[in-house]
Amino acid sequence: MKKINFWLFAGALALLVSCREEPIVDPVGMVSDTEVNNWIFNNMKTWYFWNDKLPGSPNINQKPQDFFGSLLYRYDATLRPDGDRFSWLQENADELKASLSGETTSPGLEFRIIRYTSTGSDVFGVVTYAIKGSPAEKAGFKRGDLFTHVNGQKLTVSNYYALLYTGSDAKTFTMGMRDADNNIVSSATTRSVTPSVVQSNPVYFDTTYVKGDKRVGYLVYHQFIPGPNGSSVKTYDQQLERVFADFKSKGVNELIVDFRYNRGGYVSSATQIASMIAKGVSNNDVFFFKEYNKTVTPELEKQYGKSFFQDNFVSKSQNIGGNLNRVFFLTSTSTASASELVINGLKPFMNVFLVGGKTTGKNVGSITLSDENKRIKWGIQPIVSRSSNSKRSSEYTAGFEPNVAKTEGSMLYPYGDPRDPLLGEALFQIYGTRVARRGVEEADLPKTGPEVFSTIDQKAGGGNMFYTLPDKKLP
Q1: Interacting residues of 366 by C-beta distance below 8 A, sequence separation 6+
Q2: What digits encode the pLDDT tens for the residues 14-69?
Q3: Whole-angstrom Cα distance, residue 440 to residue 449?
């Protein structure tokens, strides 16, 4: 078996997985669907967490996507509450790996699509953020912006996806605004963007607030990525270290970490940030345990020893845990995997307080499997492990419930603005008084319907943590 790269806590992103009608062509000829399916099945028999539930004689005469789906031990709330919600297959393994490192070809615009009313078909977009350095940011897009049309066409439930995702040419957005009655309407402003290769920096925003003896550090962290795709330099981990070093130098004694859009990331970065937050830990303390199926467990133990199945905290000079009695996390239904791993891993060591929405509930992990000979172009992202914290607690498949439930609504404020309902609530819990008028009272909000789409929930690699095994091969 080839050496593999471990990607733990991957999100299931069916909308990002493309299908082909014809077999993929490689440099030396055709690769049949049957060959691809046999490759998929052999890997699943070894690595899949539920490999004892695989069908004995699957029908390999299917399209790879259909074949892969037929293998899964699918989640069912009644029949299979322990089942699989997150495994997926992608046609291009190289694109999969790049996207898991934050590199995509896109305008760099993250947004939500929301109905104007509870039953209407018309929708509008609200920008959650623009990736720094992206075409969207350069065009002037910022958090809280609204848009109502793309290429002159009004957005509806039936056309928004095609308008936003079909073609690679420039797209022109008609910006929205609120009228005197607080309704969302179109403006005369348009902005055009052309997709390009974009690398996302997950360390998006940080600041401190000082009031009396309370010194509060606030960090917005979008994904667990150590550095840019293809780089051996852990640029983003180093940036995290600088942020926490700054917090420490300023005597921060309360911490708010914004995970509301964080679908996951590399385990090394999860360990990094947890090790700078946890109170009273050293590299002898367990951050989390992981378990695999009965087929691969003895081989992993033989190759790497029993310590392979646990990850410890690491000693960090930037650790501020000595000044903290608790840590606040801002969460939503998009908060997943590596974010939840950090929350769960910190619970045995300090008080963890959640503000926002219930998290996704992902305590299982996956790996990226690709053909080392590059004959088969597909990439598999199967669930292969389950995690638990140092107290062996792993009971969050239904998600972590917030201590205080809050939603951000459709009226978004810049990062760091205390009028933001999640941040404002966390600051209230710390100070006991409101730092700013709560600009998100129900009377202030435009009357809108439900959300129908979020780019955050469709991100490739949502909830992955990346391991590179030592240079050994399993037999």
Answers
A1: 7, 8, 9, 10, 86, 87, 381, 382, 383, 384, 385, 464
A2: 322 222 233 334 444 579 999 999 999 999 999 999 999 999 999 999 999 999 99
A3: 16
Contacts of 401 (CB under 8 A, 6+ apart): 354, 358
**DSSP, residue by residue, 376-423:** S--EEE-EEEEEE-TT-----TT-PPPSEE---TT----TT-TTSHHH
**What dihedral angle (degrees, nearest 10) is formed by the CA atoms of 439, 441, 442, 444?**
-30
- pLDDT tens digit string along 425-439? 999 999 998 876 544
> Cβ of 231: how many Cβ atoms within 10 Å?
12
The beta-strand segments (E) located in 261-356 are: 286-291, 310-312, 326-331, 351-356
- What is the SS3 assignment for 430? helix
Buried b (16+ CB within 10 A) or exposed e, 248-287: beeebbbbbbbbbbbbbbbbbbbbbbbbbbbbebeeebbb
Can you tell me whether residue 69 is helix, strand or coil? helix
pLDDT tens string 183-240? 899 999 999 999 999 999 999 999 999 999 999 999 999 999 999 988 999 999 999 9
HSE of 30 in the Cβ direction (CA atoms, 13 Å)? 5
CA R_g for the chain? 23
* Domains defined along the chain, listed by start: 1-102+200-445+458-475 (3.90.226.10), 105-198 (2.30.42.10)
Q: Are 31 and 376 in contact (CB under 8 A)?
A: yes
| Lookup: tokens for 336 | 């997943």
Distance from first CA to last CA of the chain, Å, rounded?
Answer: 6
Tokens, residue 200:
């996302």
| Opening angle at CA 131, ends 126 and 136, nearest 5 | 65
> Coil, strand or helix: which one is 35?
helix
DSSP, residue by residue, 268-283: HHHHHHHHHH-SS--T
